[in-house]
Specification:
This protein is an alpha+beta fold. The protein contains 13 helices and eleven strands. The strands form three sheets. A six-stranded antiparallel β-barrel has the order 1-2-5-9-7-6. Strands 3-4 form a two-stranded antiparallel sheet. A two-stranded antiparallel sheet has the order 10-11.
Length: about 400
């Protein structure tokens, strides 16, 4: 197994970076149990929450792993609390909770494995959020875009190839541009915005014949189209939804006895791979402009980007792509954690007796102005009658 197969999620403590194998967490509450004579059941008195503890299993790896190992050891040995950046939990302020362990084996040369116990020092909602976390996420998205461009330029080759390879490449790129044209139409109601986007696509189409000989420039033009979609969309979430058209798994490269067909297949795979990488990076970048209505939206977006990033990392042989998408998902987790506090969560609610949306809004929230929220969340066809036993999704009170 290569080291690339082992790399999953990137994190850091006091700025010392590492890769995460996994994480275990314990939590709960302290209770006082009072037992009385002749009573079968005790009286439970709820006290304070238990301290939140978790263990991070992580590693540093590479030809210069010793420097990374020593930097992490120095960070762990410092007194007081420090900032942990965790790909699952975001940005946390923690203490090292007792002894940590380090494991190095000759059979795993170039790798040091840590098992580190932490205890939460500050509730996440009280942690001071850095003002430039959105800038960090945008910078990571730009870096991921650049890595995707470089990888595409290395894998996509037309120059010096037979003419039918160029013709096949042109057909593939035009097909991709056609998909972009289709998915961008619904993102803006203003005719001028739609016309602007379509004109930009047509401009790239008209230059495809020459752009296929300059893959870096071609890739840059596509990223420019994605940027325009985010800028001209009525809402950033609409642009994000359009990017998902390119999230599909990249087909496995078939083996072909023909050198020419093999090159055509490789170019097609490079194009699909680049489109997926560019779309995921653009999704993360556009996230900084989204106004989330609830925590469920954040969870869904985070899970989607995490899953697609995993696919990208496992499928590529380009180190820059691996590093940039590891950093992208870490910075996305940190950013999303910063905007989560204060947002409500969608929960299931079973209607106890037949009612209507107006009465339900008052019963749940004491506010009839939230009736539209209930109707939209559940796509109610007849808001004037909601049958007993109907399961709705509502924002927790």
């Amino acid at each position: 197994m290569s080291w690339r197969d082992q790399v999953t999620n990137k994190g850091s403590f006091r700025g010392a970076e590492f890769y995460i194998d996994g994480s275990d967490r314990t939590s709960g509450r302290n209770n006082a149990v009072h037992e009385f004579p002749q009573e079968q059941l005790p009286v439970i008195q709820g006290l304070s929450p238990k301290p939140k503890r978790f263990r991070v299993d992580c590693f540093v790896i590479g030809s210069d792993y010793i420097s990374a190992r020593d930097a992490l050891i120095e960070a762990l040995d410092q007194q007081g609390k420090g900032v942990l950046v965790h790909p699952y939990y975001g940005r946390l302020e923690v203490y090292v909770d007792g002894e940590y362990s380090i494991n190095e084996r000759k059979s795993e040369g170039g790798k040091a494995t840590f098992s580190i116990p932490f205890i939460l020092a500050t509730p996440p909602e009280e942690l001071q959020v850095s003002a430039n976390e959105d800038d960090n996420l945008k910078a990571s998205a730009d870096a991921a875009h650049q890595a995707a461009v470089e990888a595409f330029a290395a894998d996509f080759q037309v120059a010096g190839q037979p003419s039918w390879i160029a013709e096949a490449a042109q057909e593939t790129v035009n097909s991709v541009l056609g998909v972009i044209s289709d998915v961008m139409r619904p993102i803006a109601k203003a005719k001028t915005a739609v016309a602007t986007l379509q004109a930009q696509v047509e401009a790239v189409k008209s230059a495809v014949e020459s752009l296929i000989y300059s893959p870096k420039e071609l890739a840059g033009q596509v990223i420019g189209l994605f940027d325009s979609m985010a800028e001209l969309a009525d809402e950033p979430s609409k642009a994000i939804e359009s990017y998902t058209a390119f999230f599909a798994p990249v087909p496995t490269l078939p083996s072909s006895p023909s050198v020419v067909q093999s090159r055509i297949d490789t170019n097609d795979a490079a194009t699909s791979t680049f489109m997926k990488q560019a779309a995921v990076a653009s999704t993360a970048k556009a996230t900084t402009n989204v106004e989330f209505a609830n925590q469920n939206q954040i969870t869904a977006l985070s899970d989607n980007v995490d899953a697609r990033s995993d696919e990208i990392i496992l499928a590529t042989e380009h180190d820059e792509v691996i590093d940039s998408f590891q950093q992208l998902r870490t910075d996305l987790a940190v950013y999303l954690r910063s905007v989560t506090p204060g947002l409500a969560r969608l929960v299931n609610y079973t209607v106890p007796s037949s009612t209507n949306s107006l009465s339900l809004a008052f019963d749940l929230y004491g506010d009839i102005d939230r009736v539209e929220e209930i109707v939209e969340l559940n796509n109610l066809i007849d808001p004037s009658f909601i049958a007993e036993g109907t399961i709705l999704q509502v924002l927790n009170v």
